[in-house]
Structure formats: C-alpha cells, structure tokens
Amino acid sequence: MTISADITHGLNEQVFIPDASTARHYRNALGTFTTGVAVVTARTPGGPIGMTVNSFTSVSLDPPLVLWSPAKSSSRHRAFTAASYFVIHVLSAEQDRLSARFTRNGAGFEGLDWIENMEGVPVIPGTLARFECERSDLHDAGDHTLILGRVLRAAHREGDPLCFSRGTFGRFQSH
Asked: Rounded to two decimals, what is the model's pTM?
C-alpha cells in the first residue's frame, strides 16, 4: 500500500512497505541509486560465460575483497556460484554495446576478442577497470547470492564510467 506523505519540507515522497503489492515502487526507489556497470566473466566446462551486472561493490582493502550478486533466477546463476575464479570488468561510458552482449539475449563471447588469465578466466581487454578474483565465500541473500571474491590482480585506465540509473544507461558529467 502506498501512502503519500509531506514530511520533507515540501517534497512529496511516496512512503510504502516493500512487499509484492509495492514491487514497482520498490524497484523505482532502488533505481534512484546510480551505479556503475560491469561484466563478470568465468570459465565453465562448457566454455566462457559472462553477465552484465550493476551489483558490484568493494568490501575490504585489507584483504582486498569485492562482491557481486547474481539473481537465483538467472540461467547463469549456478555456473557463477560454482566458479572458483571470476573477473569483474568495470565498463567505460563508450562500452554500452559491450554491456548488451552479456544480457539475457546478448551475443556473449561470439565474435568478441578476449584472452584468458592465469586461472583460465576470460578477460575482456580495454575495460575501464578489471578485478581478477578467487571466490572467497557465498552467502544466501533472498532471491540473490552474494559472491565474495578475493582480488588477485587489478587494473584500471583513465576514462569515464558507464552509469545505470532508473533503467537507463548514461554517463557521469564531471566538471
């Protein structure tokens, strides 16, 4: 149930309890948090896989830990939770087409130049940053799984990040 409330000095906000009846309001509220866009890759017995995500975050500097969280409903969930190693590629503002390759109906690795790292995981050259990880831990988190990774190697270059906000890709304007 949605309730309008004017408790923020003239700003009309929607106050609600997140449940099935307010799922769209909840998604809209989450969408106001602008994130970066990344492609996570791993090696499976069937070959390389990748997934576009915006659920990437740093966890710890010492030891160097990051996490991301695939949806349990994803057809690639089992492959990623089983992978001992993975690579998180942070995309630049010019790489929105690359992000589309690794969505549900994207082309994936077909026709894409990539290399393998020392652990056999696909690395996509030219991304804004890269974190090569060994899986550290898995945590159940509702309809997602949190995958914690210990960063073995990292790389980055200059450039603007690809951003995602309110269902749209864009770029952060720096002054």
From this structure: 0.88
**What is the rounded distance in angstroms from the CA atom of residue 5 to the CA atom of residue 63?**
44
Closest CA to 87 of 46, 118, 45: 118
Which DSSP state fits 165? E
Q: What b/e sequence results for 13-34 when a residue is b if at least 16 CB atoms lie within 10 Å of its CB, and e otherwise?
A: eeebeeeeebeebeeeeeeeee
Is-contact 152 132, C-beta < 8 A?
A: yes
Question: For each of the chain's 175 residues, which pLDDT tens digit applies?
Answer: 545 554 555 677 888 888 889 888 888 887 877 788 999 999 999 999 999 998 899 999 999 999 999 999 999 999 999 999 999 999 999 999 999 999 988 899 999 999 999 999 999 999 999 999 999 999 999 999 999 999 999 999 999 999 887 877 777 766 5
Instruction: Identify which of 81, 63, 76, 45 has the alpha carbon closest to the alpha carbon of residue 154.
Output: 63
Cα distance between residue 147 and residue 52, in whole Å: 15
What pairs with residue 133 in β-bridges? Answer: 86, 151
Write the CA distances from 115 to 15, 55, 80, 109, 125, integer angstroms. Answer: 48, 24, 19, 11, 8
